[in-house]
Write a structure and sequence with these properties.
The protein is an all-alpha fold and 410 residues long. The protein contains 21 helices and no strands.
Amino acid sequence: MKKVLFAVTLLFGAFTASAQVSVVKEAKGLKGNPEQAAKVIEAALTNSETANDPETWKLAGDFQKAIYDAENEKMYLSAVDKSKVADTAKMYNSLVKMFEYYMKCDEVEQAGVANGTIKKAKHRKKNAAELLKVRNNLVNAGVDALNAEQYEAALKYLGMYVDVIDNPMFADQAAELKADTMNTMFANYATMAAGLSKNYPLVEKYGKVGKESKSEGWRSLMYMADAYVSQQPADSTKWLEVIKEGSERFPEQQFFVGNIMDYYLARGMADEGLVQIDKLLAAGETPFYLYVKGVLLYEKKDFDGAHAVLDKVIAGGGDLEAEAYAKKADCYFFPAQDIVNENSSLTLEDPKYDTNEAKIKELYEQAKPLYEKAKQLEPQNTQLWGQMLLRIYWKLNKAEYETLQKELGY
């Protein structure tokens, strides 16, 4: 009985393989209808016998090319003939499939040459040339998908554009491809698409290419940093590496400088932060760098140094003026809080109590106009000045306290 079953299995396997060969023949006969032919040949792409034949993949790629060409022609003709309407979704889908199938054809053919089942590869040169002609349209497809917030589709198109660089099928064009700065430019788009679709491994893959762009590489580093802290488990070591790299290579991007300074501040590493920020300031002063240095000096309790740096920010005006006024006020207000805390442990009869009270009022008087200036500049940003002014007014002027309390909705 087992022998009979074995024989039946062999016959069934032979029948299946024969059926798939028949499918390929049927698809060839439908060349005049590439959409139908493409559907017919799909079954042959997963059968071991026909899928190991490069001719199957070449034929499948040819059908997709025909579909792409037809829709692409409509796109050009639509400029003069409004009745010609291209189906861009169909066109882009066939475009990426053409890449997939021709590249698979090359992979299978090269494997056949390596194991001796195929004497000589014959499709690489022509297929590579066809793909390189239309490669830039992968970018168009990816950008359209990004604009439509179809991030996984965008990743498919833009990722394919980048993957061409290292695909052995294009070995003859490798030097030219790798020298093209558009590779790193569009790798940033692929990284963005990977980040927005939360495909963190591909953020890293394409980010390593995109970050080399001199003008846009910061985008890849930014998405890589986000990926390292968003993935599970998070990788804080790699996050810090790309944040440091970003701050060194793209110092004009506040994202990196702000993040690395937050990192140092959160860990009480103000000295390390000052070393980094002084390097950036040596290359060129900006209000943001000056403000960051002021914050770091404040954290070190070097209040005189902080005032001097923050005064430069204020002198320049701009978006950080209110923050600079508030941070100068902090240099008076928070030392006063230390004295408030000390007084809470003293009795009213202690001679030091009155001395401390006088010092608190003095520091509050110095902080008050600075917080008020920050309030004037950014009245909606109550986090800068709200609670601090309330406490100051409570100590110095109850009428102002009651007015601000109502203003803040308490």
